[in-house]
Amino acid sequence: EQLVESGGGLVQAGGSLALSCEASGDIFAIIKMGWYRQAPGKQRELVADITSGGVTNYADAVKGRFTISRVSAENTVTLQMNSLKEEDTGVYYCNADGSSVVRVEGMVYEFWGQGTQVTVSS
Known about the structure:
Number of helices: 0
Oligomer: single chain
Radius of gyration: 14 Å
Strand content: over 45%
Helix content: under 10%
Order of helices and strands: EEEEEEEEEEE
Shape: elongated
């Protein structure tokens, strides 16, 4: 069971980056996928998430700049980040709520990716 993240890196303020996350095949019936971030010395916080029905939710700090999208058939989620600011710097984690073929049938579990670094320079 794993969430595989890609993207991230170093970008100048005002620039753009895209993050992608794919859930492994043993995770299924995913109810919601999203992205969290953790800046140095701060708690992990929700950036954006999207339900299986396509309902999106964004942190106030990223509204209008970030867009989350999902390809349900592929269990992937993408976060397009535009107009990046220095305060967007942090480790970004993919998150999913779903079931697993290797765990108790009918139960919903929370899965996390290993995180990918996003650094926005001035």
